[in-house]
Amino acid sequence: MQKVRFMCASVIGAVCLLISLCTQAKPNAPHITLISQVNGPSYKTDLAIQSHLQAEGYQVQILDQSQDPKQIKNTDLVILSSTVGSKNLKSGWRYLSIPLMTWESDYVDDLAMTGNRTGTDFGEVEKTRYLWLVNAPHELSAQLPAGTANVYSKQESMNWGKPGLGATIIATVYGEPEKVAIWGYEKGATMDYESLAPAKRLMFFLHNDTFTLLSNDGLKLFDRSVEWLLKP
């Protein structure tokens, strides 16, 4: 019996080691910097995002919202979580020559990704779980068909914006086509205020604590967004 227990323990240990090796980021894997309100009320959600991205094979570090963007080096993608306090961010994120993803609707105007009118150029929807995919051929649509997509496991908040003319629009809030939920800018594309994107930019629809509520389709859209931003 003892021998059987030992063999079972050995098998379990080997499986755990294999899982660890499979999910461990390779030394040359893309490096992602996630900007969060460290130890804030929604910090655990950003830790879940970090764990997910690490399981996908990326190297991921979390830095606090007090980080000076001018000091960020050796990273391939910056993610600005909506857990940050937009007024607490240091200036300079707008001009960062590194691909950037965010779901902080109160900061998209500072990034020149939208205009500056709250409720008109950006905002949030309190209760919904559906998007309307409008650009199925684009890789950011994650090969999902055009039309309705159930992206949350239950009704929750979504952030949205009204992007500039150079945006590639992927999805809008269901039933509210003027509220864009996912869009991207290629490097050099015209954003708002006639600004040109210094690198790829992307707005996703998440809210502070909704990452763990993403459905399979919602997670596909998230993962494809990261892949697109990291693509040369």
Describe the SSE topology.
Layout: H1 2-23, E1 31-36, H2 43-55, E2 59-64, E3 77-80, E4 100-102, E5 122-128, E6 130-133, E7 147-150, E8 156-161, E9 168-173, E10 176-185, E11 201-203, H3 216-230
Parallel strand pairs: 1-2, 1-3, 3-4, 4-11
Antiparallel strand pairs: 5-8, 6-7, 6-9, 9-10, 10-11
Please give a structural write-up.
With 232 residues, this protein is an alpha/beta fold. It is built from 3 helices and 11 strands. The strands form 2 sheets. It has a 9-stranded mixed β-sheet, with helices on one face. A two-stranded antiparallel sheet has the order 5-8.
Alpha-carbon distance between the two ends:
56 Å
* Computed CA radius of gyration, to the nearest angstrom: 19 Å
What overall geometry do the principal axes of the alpha carbons give?
Answer: globular
Listing every helix as H and every strand as E from the N terminus to the C terminus, the arrangement reads: HEHEEEEEEEEEEH
Largest sheet: 9 strands, mixed
Helicity range of the residues? 10-25%
